[in-house]
From TrEMBL, chain B:
One Gene Ontology biological process: phosphorelay signal transduction system
Keyword annotations of the record: Kinase, Membrane, Transferase, Transmembrane, Transmembrane helix, Two-component regulatory system
Domain Phage shock protein PspC N-terminal: 24-79
Record-linked Gene3D superfamilies: Histidine kinase-like ATPase, C-terminal domain (3.30.565.10)
Region annotation Disordered: where it falls in the sequence: 1-23
Protein source organism: Streptomyces tubercidicus
Domain Histidine kinase/HSP90-like ATPase intervals: 338-424
Pfam families in alphabetical order: HATPase_c, PspC
Protein name per the record: Histidine kinase
Membrane-spanning ranges: 42-62, 68-86, 107-128, 134-152, 173-196, 202-222
InterPro entries: HATPase_C_sf, HATPase_dom, Phageshock_PspC_N, Sensor_HK_TwoCompSys
Length: 242, 432
């Protein structure tokens, strides 16, 4: 998504509108097992000129991540998918309570070098609010951090492609017919994201507001976590609920 | 060991390998053996035809059973090797295949029968039945021990070939048969010693001892087998790691060197890095065997789109992000669409590449195939292009229309150009 477009998106969002967004600070924890990469991200964020992102902690594996997240309670965790000690999914699983915390929810943005479908879908199912690859520019990353901090979702075009693909191929089994599927509008939004449009451009194209686009995307994420009964069963089994 | 099977006669000519290392160790041959592979191993070691060695053994066997003793000694003490010494290279794969579907071939059965006949001749000649009462039990024990030993032999061979999934039932039956034979032999000796009266209590005591040992050693044995399988797993992991390391060394390090040398040419650096990234990704995340035969003609839409994007990316040094939803086999109209899409990508890379990555999206929905190519360049006005410039009109729009599809070009209001290509698939046979 184009940087200036996204920045203006931020300005259009209700309570953080206008200059207030500039004064706001988002506390971020970086979880990645490569020190070089963590340093690189810090530098990139510093270079973007928007000082609103403050890195309050770093972690290199699952246990460290848990400790630092519990201690600092950041608003956003930049989470690598491949981590020693169980991977990003394990961090998400153990932080499940913090994600749903009503007062100060911790939100996760997956930041990975891999854009393989199982990695992407895995962390989204785990509860991450977005997924960006490590090729992202600093400006886009800061935008994504702000967006996730505000409770919105960030979809990369590739991620949207995976979701579309998953729903296209699940046309055959009639089991999940009655459970919530993506609506026509949500698929339309996903399709435009997959084609590389920014949220603002999508809004213009579909004659809806950016806020509506974001709510569609959030709905997709929500549905994606448990897209059908089969998935529900697996999810429950994995957490020893049944 | 009377006759060698015909295939062995022909295929085992003593042809000493010129590259053979000078120090040769004696191994029993696991490949093409009749009994223990002793004769074959010796033949390979001495450079003689295997049938000669067999005849010598047979002759010695007739002379008071010397051959049998010798053979047994070799069998016990010479380790098992893989393949005959004559042909080392093809042996592992061959032996593995033999192991996988191992059935007693005719030669082996024949050899066993011959052995039995020979044994009975020897037995009758020496009138062992009457001479010594202990001999039969001893023979039985010997047979049992041989059975169990051969067993160990096989498992060692299997370990050699790292063949984890061998059939568990047959070895167990054989092991049990060996133990039974030894047991019968021992009992025979006990009976012959005249201590039949105590047989019951002796058996009970023996059983108690065995159970006690099993109880004591059981957990230890279990742990040991677990350790062993864990160790095997670690070895497999290590091998995988080594393969990754080799790949990273070969391609990634070389590319990094190239990048260092071209540090002054940002475009070239970007091109190298993109190409290497794509290759590494294909190697890491794609299923086995894919991404290695880049030169082959793509058979499906997804492959074709990715290939075209990769080539344009390499040629122009502009990153192209590809998203493909669904897939279908490539037919003629789709081929035309791919060419049009490629042209659009080239245009986007040439004129719109400065604004950021070019985005390519392809979707198969039912019978409709949709491709969009989007750049963030200065935009494009078809009417402003002179009449004589045919690139867009012919290569993209004209080509699509000739094949019954549509092409739309427009400038996005936010900057950049969007090319949308839509076409119906021709053959409905490959229905999804």
């Amino acid at each position: 998504m184009s940087s200036d477009g996204a920045q203006r998106d931020g300005a259009e969002q209700g309570e953080t509108g206008g200059e207030a967004a500039e004064g706001r600070t988002v506390r971020v924890v970086l979880v990645d097992d490569h020190r070089m990469f963590r340093t690189g991200v810090q530098a990139e964020i510093g270079e973007t000129g928007r000082t609103g992102v403050e890195v309050v902690g770093e972690a290199a594996d699952v246990d460290q991540a848990l400790t630092i997240i519990t201690a600092t309670r950041p608003e956003v965790v930049l989470l690598d998918v491949h981590l020693p000690g169980g991977g990003g999914v394990e961090v998400l699983r153990r932080c499940a309570a913090m994600m749903t915390d009503a007062e100060r929810p911790v939100r996760f943005l997956a930041l990975s070098v891999s854009d393989a479908a199982e990695d992407v879908i895995g962390v989204i199912r785990g509860g991450a609010r977005g997924y960006v690859t490590k090729t992202i520019t600093g400006t886009d990353l800061v935008d994504a951090i702000f967006r996730v901090a505000d409770g919105d979702a960030v979809f990369s075009p590739r991620l949207a492609g995976f979701v579309l693909d998953a729903f296209a191929s699940s046309d055959a089994p009639p089991i999940d017919e009655d459970l919530d599927r993506l609506t026509q509008r949500e698929r339309e939004v996903l399709r435009l994201i997959a084609r590389g449009y920014a949220y603002k451009e999508i809004a213009k194209q579909l004659f809806i507001s950016v806020k509506t686009v974001e709510s569609h995307v959030s709905a997709v994420l929500r549905k994606l976590q448990l897209s059908n009964r089969h998935e529900l069963t697996r999810w429950a089994a994995a957490r020893r609920l049944v | 060991m009377t006759t060698a099977p015909p295939r062995a006669e022909t295929s085992y000519a003593p042809a000493p390998d010129p590259d053979d290392p000078p120090v040769r160790k004696l191994y029993r041959s696991a490949d093409g053996r009749l009994l223990g592979g002793v004769a074959r191993g010796l033949a390979g070691h001495l450079g003689l035809p295997v049938s000669w060695v067999r005849i010598v053994f047979l002759a010695l066997f007739m002379a008071d059973g010397m051959g049998a003793l010798l053979y047994a000694a070799f069998w016990f003490f010479v380790p098992l090797g893989v393949g005959g010494v004559e042909h080392r290279q093809p042996a592992p794969a061959d032996a593995r295949r033999r192991l996988l579907r191992h059935r007693p071939d005719k030669g082996q059965v024949f050899a066993l029968i011959a052995l039995l006949i020979g044994a009975s001749i020897v037995a009758s000649r020496f009138q062992l039945g009457q001479a010594d009462g202990y001999l039969w039990p001893v023979l039985l024990i010997g047979a049992g021990v041989a059975l169990v030993w051969r067993q160990a032999d096989n498992s060692r061979r299997a370990q050699w070939l790292e063949l984890g999934r061998r059939k568990a039932l047959l070895p167990m039956v054989r092991g049990a048969a060996g133990v039974l034979l030894v047991g019968v032999g021992v009992t025979g000796i006990v009976v012959l010693q005249g201590s039949v009266r105590h047989l019951g209590s002796v058996l009970q005591a023996a059983l108690a001892v065995v159970v006690g040992i099993a109880l004591l050693a059981g957990p230890y044995l279990v742990r040991m087998t677990q350790d062993l399988s864990e160790e095997r797993l670690m070895r497999i992991r290590a091998q995988e790691r080594a393969e990754v390391a080799a790949h990273v060394h070969d391609s990634v390090l070389h590319t990094l060197t190239l990048i260092q040398r071209n540090a002054d040419h940002p475009r070239e650096v970007a091109r190298l890095a993109r190409a290497q990234e794509r290759e590494l990704r294909a190697w890491l995340y794609k299923p086995e065997g894919r991404g290695k035969e880049e030169d082959e003609e793509p058979a499906t839409l997804a492959e074709a789109v990715r290939k075209a994007a990769a080539e344009v990316e390499d040629d122009h040094g502009v990153p192209i992000e590809v998203v493909v939803v669904g897939d279908c086999p490539l037919d003629e109209p789709l081929g035309a669409q791919m060419q049009a899409a490629r042209e659009a990508m080239v245009n986007a890379a040439k004129y719109g590449g400065e604004g950021g990555a070019v985005q390519v999206f392809a979707e198969v929905e039912g019978r409709t195939v949709f491709v969009s190519v989007r750049d963030r360049g200065p935009g494009f006005d078809l009417d402003a292009v002179p009449e004589d410039r045919m690139g867009v009109r012919e290569s993209i729009i004209g080509r699509m229309e000739r094949h019954g599809g549509t092409a739309r070009l427009r400038s996005a209001p936010e900057g950049g150009t969007v090319v949308e290509l839509e076409i119906e698939r021709a053959a409905p046979e490959g229905e999804i």
